[in-house]
Amino acid sequence: MTTTTPNLPVDLFADETLLDPYPAYKRIRDEGPVVWLDVLGCWAVARYDGVRAILEDWETFTSDKGVGLNDDVNNAIQGTLLASSPPLHDQLRGILAEPLSPRGLRTMSMDIKQRALELIEPLIDRRRFDAVTDLARVFPPTIVADLVGIPDAVRSRLIPWADAIFNMMGPPDKARTYATADLVGEQYAWLATVGTRDLAEGSWGRAIYQAAEDGRIRPDQAPTLLSAYTSAAMDTTINVLSSAILLFAEHPEQWDELRADRSLIPSAFNEVLRLESPLQFFTRVATTDVDLLGTPVSAGDRLMVVFASANRDERHWGENAAEFDITRDASDHLAFGYGMHGCVGQGLARMEAHSVFEVLADRVESFHLTGPVERRINSAIRGLDSVPVEVVTIVD
Ligand code: HEM
After folding, report:
1. Alpha-carbon span 247 to 270, nearest angstrom
2. Closest Cα to residue 355, out of 155, 136, 148?
3. Which of 343, 352, 355 for a ligand 1 pocket mutation test, highest count of atoms within 8 Å of Cβ?
4. Cα separation of 258 and 264, whole Å?
5. Low-confidence ranges of the chain (pLDDT < 70)
6. Contact at 8 Å (CB) between 212 and 203?
7. Within 13 A of 137's CA, how many CA atoms are on the CB side?
8. Count of domains in the chain?
9. Which domain holds residue 290?
10. pLDDT for the residue numbered 38
11. Is residue 2 part of a domain?
12. Contact 301/61 with Cβ under 8 angstroms?
């Protein structure tokens, strides 16, 4: 371990910090480009340039040793797409990249916009609904479960499982980190039982197991790839949709702008991802002694890569970095990561979110909060449990 200052005594995983992590991120950013956190025994990299520099150099900053903050989760995800390097990484990624590529998504059988209409129109007719429990926690999980061909019997487990694995990314000295270990075990136990015929014919999940039968991957790699869908595609998309509706309720003038100019939808989605990045951080391990932005980092040191802080770095985004502005060009945000491990599912996430925004923009003039917003505390995900809203519709 290198003992260079600065060293900050911030506790990023205290409840109050998780509820509002942004002041702590700013302290780390202002302290320096690479800051040692004694509490965690690792470096924190919280400025935009530093996060991007690490993400684009996978050889010096490896994911091989896991991307969480404790050995248990890091051992559990060994050999998965998320925690591997080439050639294994590229071999695994190739299997998922086929359906998730722009071409794969163009030719997929499901009409996501139609699905958004079917779910959201009745909610708008009701006027009052919860953006989290009625919309965000229903839409992505149903879409992904159908595309991946998940059996009915385990569909209700997908959200708890995804929440559990992200939660377990936390530091070993926090009880919260291990509070969801049983759920992680439950998911792994289920994954170990899955066979080709358990997944619907023609589904993305069946294609993974088919690749194993064809010898393109080893049979034991199929469950880890399946878990990429059941974990990575849930909490992330759910929470960005929840955050979007909350932000539009709090900033009605931004919703007006979007309704007036639908071409702003992609940029609005980027801005929500930037401001309320669902995945707050992952980690990397230095493979060699390296000078990182003037700080000597030793081989074997772990570095926390704080996507959510990079996305609010005033050095990159300007003094109004903390403001929600859908006309801002936020396309180079790091909420999907960057480089080799950059989110393979971002095309699907964009399709889902754009469809939701389009359907809402057709009918909703404004969102009004009707009760308290409840945040969900998770070690790695910026989440919400409840965003109760009433909508004023355009014909009102
Ligand atoms: C708004 C929604 C999403 C967000 C914010 C998000 C965020 C991220 C981030 C930050 C990474 C980079 C991890 C790293 O650098 O270590 C990542 C990777 C990944 N994401 Fe997503 N994700 C989202 C949706 C999805 C969806 C819908 C899927 C699947 C259909 C998915 C599958 C994956 C996979 C498999 C990886 C690992 C890629 C690799 O290691 O090469 N994600 N995601």
Report:
1. 13
2. 136
3. 343
4. 6
5. 1-6, 396
6. no
7. 20
8. 1
9. 15-393
10. 92
11. no
12. no
Q: What is the DSSP letter of 197?
A: G
Question: Which of 98, 340, 308, 342 lies closest to 232 in space, CA to CA?
Answer: 342
Burial class (CB in 10 A: 0-12, 13-18, 19+), 108: middle
pLDDT of res. 5: 54
Q: Which residue has the CA at smallest separation from atom 30 of ligand 1?
A: 345
Reported as a single tens digit per residue, the pLDDT across 123-175 is 999 999 999 999 999 999 999 999 999 999 999 999 999 999 999 999 999 99
Q: What pLDDT is recorded for position 3?
A: 47
Q: Quick one: pLDDT at residue 9?
A: 84
pLDDT of the residue at 347: 97
Q: Is the CB of 283 under 6 A from ligand 1?
A: no
Q: Is 162 in the pocket of ligand 1 (CB under 6 A)?
A: no
Kindly give the distance from the C-alpha atom of residue 36 to the centroid of ligand 1, in angstroms, as a whole number: 27
In eight-state DSSP terms, residue 388 is E
Question: In this predicted model, what pLDDT tens digit does every residue of 202-234 receive, in sequence order?
Answer: 999 999 999 999 999 999 999 999 999 989 999
Would residue 5 count as lying in a domain?
A: no
Residue to substitute in 236, 276, 282, 382 for testing ligand 1 pocket (most ligand atoms within 8 angstroms of CB) = 236
Residue at 1 is within a domain: no
Q: Which residues pair with 62 in a beta bridge?
A: 285
pLDDT at position 107 is 87
User: What pLDDT is stored for residue 333 in this prediction?
Assistant: 98
DSSP assignment letter at 41: T
Q: What is the CATH number of the domain that holds 227?
A: 1.10.630.10
Atom from ligand 1 closest to the CA of residue 100 = 30
How much distance in Å is there from the Cα of 343 to the middle of ligand 1? 4
**Is 6 within the bounds of a domain?**
no
Q: For residue 370, what pLDDT is reported? A: 98
Q: How far away, in angstroms, is 336 Cα from ligand 1 center?
A: 6
